[in-house]
Amino acid sequence: MGLQKDVHQFVHFIKVEKGLSPNTLESYGRDLKQYVHYLQQENVEAFSDVTHHTIQSFLYELKLQDKSAATLARILTSVRSLHGFLYREQFTSSDPSSLIESPKKEKRLPDFLSADEVELLLQHQTIGSVPLELRNTAMLELLYASGLRVTELTSLELDHVHLAMGFLRVIGKGNKERIVPLGSQASKALTAYLESGRQQLLKKQRHAYLFVNHYGRPLTRQGFWKILKQRAKQVNINKSFSPHTLRHSFATHLLENGADLRSVQEMLGHADISTTQIYTHVTKTRMKDVYLKHHPRA
Known about the structure:
14 helices, mainly alpha, hpI Integrase, Chain A, DNA-binding, 298 residues, Tyrosine_recombinase_XerC/XerD, 3 strands, DNA polymerase, domain 1, 2 domains, DNA integration, cell cycle
């Protein structure tokens, strides 16, 4: 089989068998497109001709392009997954990626907002369309209250929200379901949006998605990103941050206020607790900063 055909079979496999999200599938596709382009430049016509040295040369080429260690590690994961699939399915007689070590990632602490900055961001401001502002406030309150990924937020459906019981049913990565508690402020904002915002935005359209745009269609990740930037501008928060920053803030503030790591892991939907442990580094770093700033003999 040709390179492109093999990649297509692999992507179909991970889509059907692994149940990966569209964003993850898109990421695999981008990484493997770069890989195939490199192999074609090197006149490699089949994956069975790829050697350990071929993959190392590909990674070196990416490094010359100033790709970060995190990006290199992600691309290598995609390449390994592809070659592992081809070997298991007996399209190739060996897996040339198996012995290649991942580039060491720099440990980068996640960005987060202070409690005061979150309060500022969540101030309700009626500017422009009232239904849109009710929706925006509900989304921001919900994101900070629950620590959802932005894709999880925009894909929420009406029957995933249980206001009376105070929880959300979230479908996360790999179609894994988890239950996330709702705070009182998020419940209040959601109630206001459902009572006085969503129906007006729908414009007589009918579908299950909770958050919709001004055309009445499901809101996209890009649409929410624009809303977040606009709200930050309205309340004069000048630092650079993304929707994921609110997720980081959710986890950091919980741990700072005494939540246990395992509970935070469950709420974030992390498969491995080591992913959640990065937030303990954040809280320790912050504790040290506070000590140095305020202790008279620091």
